[in-house]
Amino acid sequence: MIPPSTGGEQARGPAPTEGGHRSAPTMDGGNEAGLRRKGPKRVLTQGQQKRFDEFYRGYPRKEDPGTAERAWAKLDDGTEDFLNRVLPALIQGRDQYAGLIQREHRPRDKIKLPATWLNARGWESDYREVVVKTPYDDL
User: Fold this and answer.
1) Within-domain flag for 34
2) Number of domains the chain contains
3) CA-CA to 4 of 20 to 30 Å: which in 15, 34, 48, 64?
4) Which domain holds residue 94?
5) Distance (Å) of CA 134 to CA 12, 128, 129, 139
6) Residue 39 located in a structural domain
Protein backbone atom coordinates (compact mmCIF):
# COMPACT_ATOMS: atom_id res chain seq x y z
CA MET A 1 0.00 0.00 0.00
CA ILE A 2 1.34 3.43 -0.98
CA PRO A 3 1.17 6.04 1.80
CA PRO A 4 -0.83 9.20 1.02
CA SER A 5 1.04 12.35 0.05
CA THR A 6 2.09 14.59 2.94
CA GLY A 7 1.73 17.72 0.86
CA GLY A 8 5.44 18.54 1.11
CA GLU A 9 6.34 16.79 -2.11
CA GLN A 10 7.01 18.83 -5.21
CA ALA A 11 4.51 18.27 -8.03
CA ARG A 12 5.75 17.06 -11.39
CA GLY A 13 4.75 18.29 -14.81
CA PRO A 14 3.85 21.75 -16.12
CA ALA A 15 3.20 24.57 -13.67
CA PRO A 16 -0.44 25.35 -12.79
CA THR A 17 -2.24 28.08 -14.76
CA GLU A 18 -4.54 30.72 -13.23
CA GLY A 19 -7.40 28.23 -13.00
CA GLY A 20 -5.22 25.90 -10.93
CA HIS A 21 -4.91 23.15 -13.53
CA ARG A 22 -1.72 22.18 -15.29
CA SER A 23 -1.23 22.91 -18.96
CA ALA A 24 0.75 20.48 -21.12
CA PRO A 25 3.01 21.73 -23.92
CA THR A 26 1.69 21.54 -27.48
CA MET A 27 3.49 20.76 -30.74
CA ASP A 28 3.75 24.44 -31.79
CA GLY A 29 5.94 25.43 -28.81
CA GLY A 30 3.08 26.92 -26.83
CA ASN A 31 0.81 25.13 -24.40
CA GLU A 32 -2.88 24.45 -23.89
CA ALA A 33 -3.28 27.70 -21.96
CA GLY A 34 -2.11 29.64 -25.05
CA LEU A 35 1.18 30.79 -23.52
CA ARG A 36 4.22 30.91 -25.77
CA ARG A 37 7.78 30.26 -24.77
CA LYS A 38 10.21 33.11 -25.24
CA GLY A 39 12.77 32.82 -28.04
CA PRO A 40 16.51 32.63 -27.50
CA LYS A 41 18.04 35.48 -25.55
CA ARG A 42 20.24 37.87 -27.55
CA VAL A 43 23.86 37.67 -26.46
CA LEU A 44 25.43 40.38 -28.63
CA THR A 45 25.19 44.15 -28.56
CA GLN A 46 24.31 45.93 -31.77
CA GLY A 47 27.99 46.67 -32.53
CA GLN A 48 29.05 43.11 -31.72
CA GLN A 49 26.26 41.76 -33.94
CA LYS A 50 27.44 43.88 -36.88
CA ARG A 51 31.04 42.68 -36.48
CA PHE A 52 29.93 39.06 -35.97
CA ASP A 53 27.80 39.19 -39.12
CA GLU A 54 30.86 40.41 -41.08
CA PHE A 55 32.86 37.46 -39.74
CA TYR A 56 30.11 34.86 -40.21
CA ARG A 57 29.28 35.96 -43.77
CA GLY A 58 32.75 34.88 -44.96
CA TYR A 59 33.16 31.80 -42.78
CA PRO A 60 33.18 28.57 -44.85
CA ARG A 61 30.75 26.59 -42.66
CA LYS A 62 27.40 28.10 -41.67
CA GLU A 63 26.18 25.94 -38.79
CA ASP A 64 25.26 26.56 -35.15
CA PRO A 65 25.25 30.38 -35.24
CA GLY A 66 23.99 30.68 -31.65
CA THR A 67 27.06 28.96 -30.26
CA ALA A 68 29.26 31.01 -32.59
CA GLU A 69 27.64 34.21 -31.29
CA ARG A 70 28.38 33.21 -27.70
CA ALA A 71 32.02 32.50 -28.63
CA TRP A 72 32.16 35.89 -30.38
CA ALA A 73 30.74 37.65 -27.31
CA LYS A 74 33.66 36.32 -25.25
CA LEU A 75 36.16 37.78 -27.73
CA ASP A 76 34.59 41.07 -28.81
CA ASP A 77 34.79 43.48 -25.90
CA GLY A 78 34.56 46.50 -28.21
CA THR A 79 37.89 47.96 -27.02
CA GLU A 80 40.25 49.77 -29.36
CA ASP A 81 42.65 46.83 -29.10
CA PHE A 82 39.98 44.43 -30.37
CA LEU A 83 38.80 46.77 -33.12
CA ASN A 84 42.24 47.82 -34.37
CA ARG A 85 44.33 44.70 -33.81
CA VAL A 86 42.29 41.55 -33.17
CA LEU A 87 39.38 42.10 -35.59
CA PRO A 88 41.54 42.71 -38.69
CA ALA A 89 43.72 39.68 -37.80
CA LEU A 90 40.59 37.60 -37.21
CA ILE A 91 39.07 38.52 -40.59
CA GLN A 92 42.40 37.90 -42.36
CA GLY A 93 42.77 34.52 -40.57
CA ARG A 94 39.21 33.58 -41.55
CA ASP A 95 39.97 34.36 -45.19
CA GLN A 96 43.20 32.32 -45.07
CA TYR A 97 41.32 29.39 -43.49
CA ALA A 98 38.62 29.62 -46.18
CA GLY A 99 41.37 29.59 -48.83
CA LEU A 100 42.91 26.48 -47.28
CA ILE A 101 39.51 24.77 -47.32
CA GLN A 102 39.17 25.55 -51.04
CA ARG A 103 42.71 24.45 -51.93
CA GLU A 104 42.32 21.14 -50.13
CA HIS A 105 38.74 20.54 -51.30
CA ARG A 106 38.02 19.68 -47.70
CA PRO A 107 34.70 17.89 -47.05
CA ARG A 108 32.12 19.76 -44.98
CA ASP A 109 32.52 17.53 -41.93
CA LYS A 110 36.25 18.36 -41.81
CA ILE A 111 35.67 22.14 -41.65
CA LYS A 112 35.66 23.47 -38.10
CA LEU A 113 32.42 24.93 -36.79
CA PRO A 114 32.72 28.70 -36.38
CA ALA A 115 32.52 28.52 -32.56
CA THR A 116 35.28 25.90 -32.48
CA TRP A 117 37.49 28.03 -34.72
CA LEU A 118 36.84 31.15 -32.58
CA ASN A 119 37.41 29.38 -29.25
CA ALA A 120 40.67 27.87 -30.57
CA ARG A 121 41.82 31.34 -31.73
CA GLY A 122 42.08 29.93 -35.25
CA TRP A 123 43.07 33.29 -36.72
CA GLU A 124 46.45 32.90 -35.04
CA SER A 125 47.22 29.76 -37.08
CA ASP A 126 49.26 29.89 -40.27
CA TYR A 127 47.15 28.73 -43.22
CA ARG A 128 49.47 29.81 -46.01
CA GLU A 129 50.21 27.26 -48.69
CA VAL A 130 53.36 25.32 -47.92
CA VAL A 131 55.62 24.31 -50.79
CA VAL A 132 57.68 21.26 -49.93
CA LYS A 133 60.83 20.75 -51.95
CA THR A 134 62.37 17.31 -52.07
CA PRO A 135 65.81 16.29 -53.33
CA TYR A 136 64.10 14.66 -56.31
CA ASP A 137 62.62 17.96 -57.53
CA ASP A 138 65.95 18.97 -59.14
CA LEU A 139 66.33 15.77 -61.15
Assistant:
1) no
2) 1
3) 15
4) 46-124
5) 70, 19, 16, 10
6) no
Helix (H) or strand (E) holding 75: helix 65-75
Q: How far is CA 88 from CA 48, 50, 68, 124, in A?
A: 14, 14, 18, 12
3-state SS, residue 100:
helix
**Least confident residue range of 17-26, 49-58, 71-80, 101-110:** 17-26
pTM over 0.70: no
Mean pLDDT of all residues in 30-55: 75
Give pLDDT tens digits for 18-39.
555 554 554 544 544 555 545 5
Polymer length of the chain: 139
Residue 75 inside a domain? The answer is: yes
Q: At what angle are helices 46-58 and 65-75 packed, to 10 degrees?
A: 120
97 and 120 Cβ atoms separated by less than 8 Å? no
Please name the amino acid found at residue 66. G
CA distances from 76 to 23, 85, 99, 124 (A): 41, 12, 24, 16
Asked if 74 and 86 touch (Cβ cutoff 8 Å), the reply is no
